[in-house]
Design goal:
Length: about 90
């Protein structure tokens, strides 16, 4: 009966020939190939100005006065829906 090393050697030799060559990684996308982030429009209907920090993107959105409209990243939009004086447009 053979020793454990003989089995390991036989396995190593047989599996070495069975492995497929590694394929190169695909190149990262170029800047013009990266899809644009979807946005959702919000209008400020309050009396003064208001700033809101997007909870997901950490983007600072500044509504400068009544009627100000901004495009908000779609990932932050659910939070903006609950902010007083902001309405989707």
């Amino acid at each position: 009966m053979g020793c454990c090393n003989e089995k390991r050697t036989a396995w190593a030799v047989s599996s070495a020939g069975a492995s497929a060559p590694l394929s190169p990684r695909p190149a990262p996308p170029m800047a013009h190939e990266i899809p644009m982030t979807k946005t959702v429009g919000f209008e400020y209907v309050g009396d003064t100005a208001m700033s809101v920090l997007g909870p997901i993107t950490r983007t600072h959105y500044r509504f400068r006065g009544p009627g100000a409209r901004l495009e908000v990243d779609h990932r932050d939009a659910p939070y903006f829906g609950g902010v007083p004086n902001l309405r989707r447009f």
